[in-house]
DNA sequence: AAGTCTCGCAACCGCACATAC
DNA sequence: TGTATGTGCGGTTGCGAGACT
């Protein structure tokens, strides 16, 4: 017996959300909090299915969502994490609390994947390599940093880069941003809504406690791209608290799915709060590695980049 | 100026997983 | 134990805007 649809399709509205629908949804969530999505359409009168309401909230209306340009540092983190975790967008998004998995997924598919592919073909020109493409592209292997968008070296040897992208929010996006902004105060004053907590430095890394690993750990991570996405190697070295378990046979890796009690999105957040109530818990090795400007912000080492991009 | 093409993003779809009964 | 239900996730699609011819 197949799983029934999440909602009766008849009379369900599809397509883009209107500002009025957004306001209705936000007002309801302000009053009742996120969750119990099944009841949202009936209680609000929205002609949307529950999944659509949840998606609209988590991907667009949820407070704290950052839209627009991805910074070079964010790009670097995404590249690293994608090489490390594969297409586990929710897990990757847990490291970028202001970005949604959908945003990251879209950005990867439309920008980063393309650029990494070009980068790889520039480094490993095959007989069939599209030479014209390489020549015409602004990508330059000899440059100090990857050309993610229009990256300009600010000089001074600092390694800082400026990113000039032409991303722009639509006027409608602006209106929903305003809706989100209206919610900021509510989020601050209301009891913690675990699934939507943002800005915490604790994240999925809390699940894979990699603190206190040495250079060999880094070596494992860096060579990850050549291991057919088998996380076992990495996790073998982690402590017993590690909950990322990938048998290398496609078994679900995402720690969120192991922590769905209470129907919380991103349960990784605050997952170790019982151990340490400090608002700024020590960064795990992985987090330190990811947040390290020299590693994630500019990707200086071309050989390292080769390994990361070898998954393509 | 008009038609066509390309690209980016919001939203949808189907499946997987957890839980309640 | 099996079924129903709720939710999360990743892949894909379709539309609109801008670029191009």
UniProtKB/TrEMBL annotation:
Key words, A-Z: DNA-binding, Nucleus
Subcellular location(s) per record: Nucleus
Superkingdom of the organism of origin: Eukaryota
Keyword Nucleus: yes
Region (Disordered): 237-282
Record bears the keyword Aminoacyl-tRNA synthetase: no
Domain Myb-like residues, every copy: 9-61, 62-112
Domain HTH myb-type: 9-65, 66-116
Name by which UniProt lists this protein: Uncharacterized protein
Species this protein is from: Hibiscus sabdariffa
